[in-house]
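To illustrate the input format used throughout this study, we show a single complete record. The first block contains the structure-token representation of the backbone; no residue identities are included at this stage. The design step must infer an amino acid for every position from geometry alone.
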């Protein structure tokens, strides 16, 4: 028998056809009483609104986990799985089901699998009403198959949450170390040092440790969609690398300047227009620099040390205090050249640079794992539901 109402991908123990039902025939939908900002307390049970958790309240209005759909605001139509006990406000529509008939995590994942945005009304004040939700049709398998699918997506979401928590912790740790492993303004030694190093740091202008510093072309090259070289600006410097996008223009080799041709591997690139201070490494990519990208070829300093020094709060403050322009802010090469920095002996520079480089590698590995899991989840949501 050839089934029509079955998903593309399913667990091997199940082969029955799925049943189409109106959401209103499987769930009781309602908007709880909304509480005001003044009703929130400093502790108690979490309060879940249209866009997530907004604070605490004295007592819950739901003890058990619930599936909700944002009913108002910019995130209208977004499903959520809300852990109980919790106070859910009237900005969310509760989709309450009988757990003896419907697995809640299956329902939540099913709602995620097909966008509800097309059902949103209201224009400037978007909303999603119960009458509209009641007639939306969804497909349901047997409860055991629902439970198997729900369990899979719950495990996947818990894994994603754990990776995201670890990523946030390591990012916070990096920010803390950047503030403590470089001297603060007016000081010549950092708060925290790696073992085996002592003594005061010396001071120089950044230009004294650079062999070259410059920026890209101050004009518009001749674009060619078939060109091999990407014409990049500061917005292309993302997460330590050059990242191209659909807006990126391309040029032929004959458009490159001598500075572009002379770029060396591991030159530091920095945005000096728009996303001021964003950094990336040049790794022999075929690119042409615009005027919004500066290049720094480090000579007498350790490259990694300078790269992370440029990320510290005091250096970024200096950059923002030296911006020029009114509508569009720019960081001039003169300000970069004249930047006064404190630095230790070369071996300590290398140790600091390696410390942060290893930390960034760890951070990148968590981000990559998150990307892989999110891609997997997206595919499974598409293939495991109708």
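Output of the design step:
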């Amino acid at each position: 028998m050839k089934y029509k109402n079955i998903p593309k991908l399913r667990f091997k123990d199940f082969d029955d056809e799925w049943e189409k039902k109106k959401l209103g025939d499987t769930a009781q939908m309602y908007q709880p009483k909304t509480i005001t900002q003044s009703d929130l307390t400093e502790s108690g049970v979490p309060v879940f609104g249209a866009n997530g958790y907004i604070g605490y309240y004295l007592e819950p209005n739901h003890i058990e986990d619930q599936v909700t759909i944002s009913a108002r605001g910019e995130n209208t139509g977004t499903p959520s799985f809300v852990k109980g006990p919790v106070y859910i406000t009237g900005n969310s529509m509760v989709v309450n089901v009988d757990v003896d008939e419907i697995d809640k995590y299956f329902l939540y994942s099913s709602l995620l699998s097909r966008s509800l945005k097309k059902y949103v009304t209201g224009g400037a004040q978007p909303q999603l009403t119960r009458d509209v939700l009641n007639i939306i049709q969804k497909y349901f398998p047997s409860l055991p198959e629902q439970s198997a699918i729900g369990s899979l997506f719950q495990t996947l979401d818990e894994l994603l949450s754990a990776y995201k928590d670890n990523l946030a912790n390591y990012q916070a740790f990096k920010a803390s170390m950047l503030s403590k492993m470089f001297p603060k303004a007016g000081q010549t030694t950092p708060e925290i040092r790696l073992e085996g190093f002592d003594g005061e740091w010396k001071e120089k202008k950044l230009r004294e440790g650079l062999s070259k510093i410059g920026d890209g072309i101050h004009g518009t090259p001749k674009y060619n969609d078939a060109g091999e070289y990407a014409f990049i600006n500061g917005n292309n410097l993302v997460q330590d690398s050059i990242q191209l996008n659909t807006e990126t223009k391309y040029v032929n080799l004959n458009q490159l300047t001598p500075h572009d041709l002379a770029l060396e591997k591991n030159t530091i690139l920095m945005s000096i227009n728009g996303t001021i201070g964003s950094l990336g490494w040049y790794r022999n990519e075929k690119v042409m620099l615009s005027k919004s990208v500066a290049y720094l070829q480090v000579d007498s300093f350790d490259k990694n040390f300078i790269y992370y020094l440029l990320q510290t709060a005091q250096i970024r403050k200096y950059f923002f205090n030296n911006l020029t322009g009114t509508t569009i802010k720019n960081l001039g090469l003169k300000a970069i050249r004249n930047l006064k920095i404190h630095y230790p002996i070369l071996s300590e520079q290398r140790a600091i640079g390696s410390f942060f480089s290893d930390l960034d590698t760890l951070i990148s590995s968590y981000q990559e794992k998150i990307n892989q899991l999110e891609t997997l989840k997206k595919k499974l949501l598409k293939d495991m539901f109708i």
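Structural context for interpreting the output: The chain has nine helices and 22 strands. The CA atoms of residues 19 and 124 lie 36 Å apart.
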